[in-house]
Amino acid sequence: MEKSFDEQNLLERKVTQLETRFAQLDQLDHDSQHNTQFDAIPELSDLRVENTKLKYRISTGMTSILHSVKQLFGTAIREAYPMLTNAPLLVTKSDHADYQCNSALPLSKYLSAEKRLPPRDVANTLIAHLPPNPLIGDVVVAPQGFINITLNKEFVSNSILNVVTTGVHVKPLSDKQANNRVVIDYSAPNIAKEMHVGHLRSTIIGDAIARLMEFVGMDVLRVNHVGDWGTQFGMLLAHLIEKYPDYKTNTPPIADLQAFYKESKKRFDDEPDFKARAYNTTVRLQAKEAEMITAWKQICEISRKEFREVYNLLGVSQHLIERGESFYHELMVEVVKDLEQKKLLIEDEGRKVMFSTDPSAPPLTIVKSDGGYTYDTSDMATLRQRIHDEKAGRIIYVVDGGQSQHFQLIFNCGTLAGYYDPNTVRVEHLGFGVVLGEDKKKFKTRSGDTIRLRELIREGFERSLAKLIEKGRDKELTPEELKAAQEAVAIGCIKYADLSHDRNHEYVFSFDRMLDDRGNTAVYLLYALTRIRSIIRNANLSQDITEMAKKESKLDLSHAREYKLAKQILRFAEVILQIADDLYLHTLCSYLFELSVVFSEFYDQCYCIEKVMEKGVQKVKVNINRIILCEATARVIETGLSLLGIKSVNKM
User: CA-to-CA distance for 645 and 590, rounded, in angstroms?
Assistant: First the structure.
């Protein structure tokens, strides 16, 4: 349904008000960073989410050209051959044109013997049935029946102007989503244990997927399924009570929770009496005695403070909500009762187990022989809650690839229990490989310990500053600009190194490689972006570039490099929508790198700013068409980096 004129105006006024508030809060946020890099303004994050959603409602956004071409040829096939069902629709990018339709050959085989035509004739029939559209400029049939498709240059021109005048927004493939509620489970550290490099990939990938889903208009719920319940807490609380008997009135001075955990674990292993007291404390905690809950909350809050510091450093969304094992504890009781009533649990050596439909797979242990619950119980309760209570249309578990079989069992058993219908809800495990050291072994310290994430990030800050100073940036940037560049490079290089790899594969963590300004790295992209922004600044435009673009009726793309760059910019929507489906973020990284390379080719051959002599006087000539192309490129790169969780800077 079209929005009314009044509604459109109302939305646009709301966006203007929000952007005014942004300017105020951005200054406060900037000022707070001079005091501590952990400070943040929650309102700023909340308003950005609201603003994104409003802009999404106002703009139709960039369209996936590949999908649009598929729609056009799908219509042509149905019009030309209505008797065929499930006719093959094969449209891809092409080396010979912009896109290529390869449906003619298989279609000719589908046709009955009396109507069978050569592929070339089928191709011409499809072209004759193409609906009128502004997208396609020309089609040429190859001898084998392949249809080479060239875009309409006017469409490309108008689309680039739209990027600059309305911003970078992507139109979803469907205007009417049956259920756009997406639950994304990621990060999931354990209370009382410090975050380590093992949490890095889940946190970075999950945060980027959540950003991207929100960008395409999904209603995203970010969930941090922390480990905050179980036997180990009886051990921790028993140690806390004995070491700090006044914990009720004085907050225990636990500076290093990891060391505190090791102390309690050593006592648990070495002292039988303490072990017995720890088990008794666990029973009291699970019975929710007020004294135990108070002590448990203190332990949890110490961990949360450390988690927040890491999340703030990494720029992880403040909308990541904590729902630990304790949140699902009562729901686990309900699940066990439900599975028993449905006669899906089987007694096995004192345990209660549930088998999937795969006879070769091990069963889920729902109840242990001592009556306790397991991760299997928790994950069944989690799946049920997210579908029944959260009304999720899609659930994404961002957990390492080693848990693949476990999740397949959970999904299978969830279907058997009636918690999950694959026809109405999309549930998937987004797996990923491990992080390796430069020795190609699991990434650890020299002593063999797991690397703490906070220490790794600190090293990134130190190395990024050293790299900037090595390049003499400290002499060209103000202290504030240098600090902003340091943060962008430090966090950007860590995130991009992870996200630029196929997530199914392991990758080698190397700061030297990450901080290289050559090749597909965050540093290269950040430098490319600041270079483009510098070109635009040097044009010394008399008015805002957006307003100038609004006055242009057409963008001149007569040079081959201009046209190539424009088409590459417009591939952004296609890439984003592909990732929203398959969840492979390295595709976006490859696209951004390719875009920066295409821009370099354009800039080498197409002067944006020239010094010319007119009547003996040297003047500066600015090609506004090319500056608009620069602006569109910059906006797409900035948006892409933002979706990856990487801050961009104007100077570096």
Answer: 16
- Give the tokens for residue 543: 């008015």
Spatial CB neighbours of 206, under 8 Å, sequence gap ≥ 6: 184, 185, 186, 187, 222, 396, 398, 430
- Report how many helices (DSSP H) and strands (DSSP E) the chain contains, helices first: 23, 16
Q: Would you list the DSSP string of 136-188?
A: EEEEEE-TTS-EEEEE-HHHHHHHHHHHHHH-S-B--S-SS-S--EEEEE---
CATH assignment of 495-643, given 1.10.510.10, 1.10.730.10, 1.10.10.60, 1.10.3720.10?
1.10.730.10
CB 453 within 8 A of CB 195: yes
pTM of structure = 0.87
SS3 label, residue 543: coil
Instruction: Summarize pLDDT for 307-359 with one digit per residue, the tens.
Output: 999 999 999 999 999 999 899 989 999 999 999 999 999 999 999 999 999 99
Calculate mean pLDDT across residues 562-578. Answer: 97
Residue 396 CA from chain centroid, whole number: 11
pLDDT value at position 61? 79
How many whole angstroms separate alpha carbon 595 and alpha carbon 593? 5
**What is the rounded CA–CA span in Å between residue 157 and residue 550?**
13
